[in-house]
Amino acid sequence: MVTVRVPAKVNVQLGVGGVRPDGYHDLANVFFAVALGDQVTATPGTGVTLSCDGPDAAAVPLDDSNLAARAARLLAARHGLAEPGVHLHIDKAIPVAGGMAGGSADGAAALLACDALWGLDTPLPVLLELAAELGSDVPFALLGGVALGRGRGELLEPLPVAGTFHWVFAVADGGLSTPAVFRECDRLREESGLGSSIDQVPTPDADPALLAALADGDPVALAAALANDLQAAAVSLRPSLADTLHAGTEAGALAALVSGSGPTCAFLAKDADAAAHIAAALRASGTCRTAHPTHGPVPGARVVHTSA
Ligand SMILES: C[C@](O)(CO)[C@H](O)COP(=O)(O)OP(=O)(O)OC[C@H]1O[C@@H](n2ccc(N)nc2=O)[C@H](O)[C@@H]1O
Ligand SMILES: Nc1ncnc2c1ncn2[C@@H]1O[C@H](COP(=O)(O)OP(=O)(O)OP(=O)(O)O)[C@@H](O)[C@H]1O
């Protein structure tokens, strides 16, 4: 049996370029791994089977479309294993379809758990390549910490960061579809007359002030630099997110932003006590389903337990 712990992410900067011919957008994507995470346990089995526990378990598909199952099959195929055998149990704490890369996290965790269970010793560069095949957010879940993602987000460069930052995540009722949010971003750009194609939108770049705030461990400077080009699109599709963002700011957050493609909202706090207070205020506000205080950065997917 092998258990892997894997973090969720928030994008502290999500710069979105124009639509590429393959339908993806080039990004300047600064990923930040937080302690809120899932656990994936791999045990020997016949075929690839799945189970899931947690408050959102009912929303998690248990068929071959699950990123954890796809990861197990992809790893097996890479090693020429004709009949992969594994049962994967997901302890799910990351909101589903919430913009925190929960499915991607489980895909990364399953790669690592199956690799250990099957004794494959796959080198990290190969795991990262398989991760990129599974989805744009999956490589970062293997790496963790803070990293700049270029291309569609899969080309990663670890970034220096000092200290610990405190966050609160407000979980919405129901998810948002990532492709639908990118499409809405394009639609809003077209509507404003800017255009949405790769030759109309400047290629985004990481903000030097944001990188300095991370390297200095300065939450006030980070708060001033947080930016998400998908936020307007997420709020356009789910206008009630404006109330959630407002409630967290009123409760003393240094800054509020939509996490990735949303609808989870992220709030930066000055310390752990402030985070606990903001989370309680958000829960009481009636503008979200629940709110979790947490911190980061934390490492990427890692084995936390192995037994025969
Ligand atoms: C919004 C983010 O979570 C920010 O980290 C990611 O960019 C999304 O990553 P993901 O969920 O792993 O996305 P993928 O599974 O690779 O792609 C899902 C869909 O999102 C859109 N997509 C995704 C990544 C990207 N750079 N440009 C896109 O336009 C495309 O419509 C794509 O078909
Ligand atoms: N292991 C998984 N956990 C949750 N959802 C999964 C999983 N595997 C596949 N899915 C499917 O993927 C959809 C998106 O789920 P996910 O939780 O990854 O979204 P997300 O956090 O918004 O993604 P991202 O932030 O990477 O764009 C779900 O609605 C579900 O149908």
Automatic annotation (TrEMBL):
Domain GHMP kinase N-terminal: 66-145
GO biological process, one term: terpenoid biosynthetic process
Sorted UniProt keywords: ATP-binding, Isoprene biosynthesis, Kinase, Nucleotide-binding, Transferase
The protein's enzyme class: transferase
Record: active site: 9, 137
InterPro entries on file: GHMP_kinase_C_dom, GHMP_kinase_C_sf, GHMP_kinase_N_dom, IspE, Ribosomal_Su5_D2-typ_SF, Ribsml_uS5_D2-typ_fold_subgr
Entry GO MF terms: 4-(cytidine 5'-diphospho)-2-C-methyl-D-erythritol kinase activity; ATP binding
HAMAP family: IspE (MF_00061)
NCBIfam families named in the record: ispE (TIGR00154), PRK03188.1 (NF002870)
Sequence similarity: Belongs to the GHMP kinase family. IspE subfamily.
Protein name: 4-diphosphocytidyl-2-C-methyl-D-erythritol kinase
Source species of the chain: Kitasatospora setae (strain ATCC 33774 / DSM 43861 / JCM 3304 / KCC A-0304 / NBRC 14216 / KM-6054) (Streptomyces setae)
